[in-house]
Amino acid sequence: MSPSAEVADRSLSRRIAALALPALVVLAAEPLYVLVDTAVVGHLGRVPLAAVAVGGTVMSLAVWFGTLMAYGTTGRAARRFGAGDRGAAVAEGVQASWLALGTGVLLVVLAQLFAGPLTRALASDPQAADAAAGWLRIAVLGAPGLLLAAAGNGWMRGVQDTRRPLYYVLGANVLSAVLCPVLVYPLGWGLTGSAVANVVAQTLSGVLFLWAVVRERTPLRPVPSVIGNQLVLGRDLLIRGAAFQACWLSATAVAARFGVAAVGAHQIALQLWFFAALALDAVAIAAQSLVGAALGAGDEPAAREVARRVTIVGGLAGLAFAVLAAAGADVIPGVFTGDRSVHDQAAVVWPWFVGMLPFAGVVYALDGVMIGAGDVGYLRTMTLVGALGGFLPLIWLAYAFDWGLPGVWAGLAVFTLVRLVALLIRWRGSRWAVLGVTR
Fold this sequence. Notes:
Elements: H1 3-42, H2 46-82, H3 86-122, H4 126-139, H5 143-158, H6 163-184, H7 191-215, H8 224-256, H9 260-296, H10 300-327, H11 332-336, H12 340-372, H13 376-400, H14 404-428
Helix pairs in contact: 1-6, 1-9, 2-3, 2-4, 2-5, 2-8, 2-9, 3-4, 3-5, 3-8, 4-7, 5-7, 6-7, 8-9, 8-13, 8-14, 9-10, 9-12, 10-12, 12-14, 13-14
Membrane topology: Multi-pass membrane protein
Subcellular location: Cell membrane
Keywords: Cell membrane, Membrane, Transmembrane, Transmembrane helix, Transport
């Protein structure tokens, strides 16, 4: 490799790291705050803890919408930034902010109307359901801020500004983590204090991102045609996300039919899988920004080099997780439970879990490449093919023929393999590398 090529190689690696590492902190901030909130409320008793669990499940829908909004905005803004038009990139953030605000207000209204029926459907205990409804009616007031922050994260990643999102999200969540125990205990607000702390964090974060977009001095009026294009992209991401949710819920439902120990082991492995996915998503976010910018600049070789590099990084990150998980096979389940029967079932799941991680690293990286390229329709279709043609039939066959957890995780493995093959085929072709600024 020539000296100039080595310099370019190191420069790209630094750019990937500069985007991925702050994104990882931002991605981890909300789940870490949820852990703090859960720990604080848990000392109030079983009913408040159950209320936060049920209410938090409903609020996770807003988080899901926010993730989709951020991903969709990043690719569109990155293309315009790569084409040298920062103003147009920020304008994508303006329109995404309008969409976020409208969606957030709608969620607030729906929660006020349907919090009671929703929580009663999720909680069998009437006292817990009522407490969850009260918590949700307050906590949902933070939904507009949460979605504004997601839209802001999206356009800022698109223009490769990673520092401000890190400060905004981390600052708001640290403030709320300090505020939560103070409101719950010394001030005596109890469960209400938890909900208010959530609203404070999400609203503050949303206001900071809104302030950032206003400071760009880009026209702030809504443009329905741009919002419509964002909705089309969001629709495909939403369908793809719904396929994932159907898979995870079905896997848990089938695992539960093999006994308490089996579902406990499955839950441990699945939550660790989600944790690994969170870290690997940071690489995908770097791919979204860099691929979108390269294609917007009309530089297909640069886009392909980014795709190649993030795929390698994703695979190595997945391999690192696999090595750590394999080394901790006898220790990690004991962190979650002392039940020996759960440990025995975890030992059955572990080879599947470990073996899938390197492939998952490649899949998540290539997901980011295709989202950055705007090739979301293909992602949607291949996810549905993997879910409906491989994963779901396999795990229900596992239930019918009593294959146990190996059958469930074989379904997860097939789902990952189908997506891997589909993404590699697409990556090797040229249809994803559409140059210039798309609609």
